[in-house]
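Slide 14.
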Amino acid sequence: MRKSLTYVLLPLAVIISAILPRGAEAVPAFARQMGMSCSSCHFQHFPLLNNFGRAFKASGYTMDVTPTIEADHFSLPVNLNMAMFTNIRFQQTNGTAAPGAATSDDGEWVIPGETSLFVAGRVNDHTGALMEGDVGGAGAAGGAGFLASLKIPVIHAINSSTTAGFVPFTSGLGPAYAYETLNTGAVGNHLLTLVHPTEVSAQQYIQVGAGTTYNDYGGDAEGVGAFVANNSYFVTAAKWSPNHISLNSDTAATGHLTSNYLRAAWTPIYEGFDLGLGLQYMGGTSTRAGAPMDRVRTEAYAVDAQLQGSVSNMPLGIYLSVATAPKTAPGDVPNLYNPNPNDKQALTLTAELGAFNEGRGTLQLAYRQADDGTATMSNDDALTIGASYLFSYNSQVSILHTSYLGDAHDASKPGGPLPISATGGGDQLTSVNLAVAF
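Slide 15: predicted structure.
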């Protein structure tokens, strides 16, 4: 990766933090469980977590203020918590559509987009659960079954401030789904936007958290994880495989958890600012289910950081991530995250300011410096601008525009230009999205 922009962005991040004034998983099922607004757990808007949201997740979803049925060795909430999430999107790319083809190059409506049913909450004093089911829409895997993700955290309080947990999981969000609370995109459901994820997060770009991707790996992961967390840090480790039993018809390869996942993050509160600094590592080899079954390396690593707080009574979030997926050399077992002959790399710097209507309206800016790892024409830099508005804390409209600045999207690229949506090309992408959760 070119170093020139790194030399600019890193000092810029330091300068920003120096001049700031000192002081200062969007699932409504959990709002019902806690009897609180979604804003109690989320910073600015869903799905960004705040400090209390991290604490709730560290509890294994066992915090509860609703009535329970109590008996010897039995404590079950009276109500089963459920929620729905859906979105409607219009997107436009500036590529040239083939005659008669219906693509985003002509402008397309996605109605609905990802539509999910969540069942979640407290199982007992030491166990929680979160299940997401694909109801339909553009985010669903056609004919693949209902289960999109499932985790069952079993937790133990080490002391009054520190919790340890054991988490069996299966998901399409990568191994970070085991346990993650930063908003940098280390996992695909905690970042500034779910609409342009690879443009605002380096981890999403190299697919460690499996956001929207346009190759044959969508982030399948199943395994067992363990974490230790308190207000100042969390550490996660997992054994996993790149399979997701509800999404694979051939499950002969599942059950062998031979890949490794490690994650550590420091999450202090400093003079009113919610900070985060983390390391993320994936390694090992696994077998992917399918025909034929593939032996793959699962190698990638990342460094990320965040700052969340308030400037002049306006909420401000700044997110930095740097990620690499090592190359696949001739004769090597292919790297799941990068089949190309050079390292796939990205650096993203993203900011969101709650600039109007008491922070419910935000302005967003993101820059991505990236190399797609191909032999030639691999520059995949991008600039994204956007705005969002919360009609209420569970309904949001947003508009995002991304300009792709590198030659990886040129028509002359060997093997063809990189796509910028599932159906369109070019070097400009505009999305208008309405998301609701209830």
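Speaker note: Confidence is low (pLDDT under 50) at residues 2-25, 210-215, 247-251.
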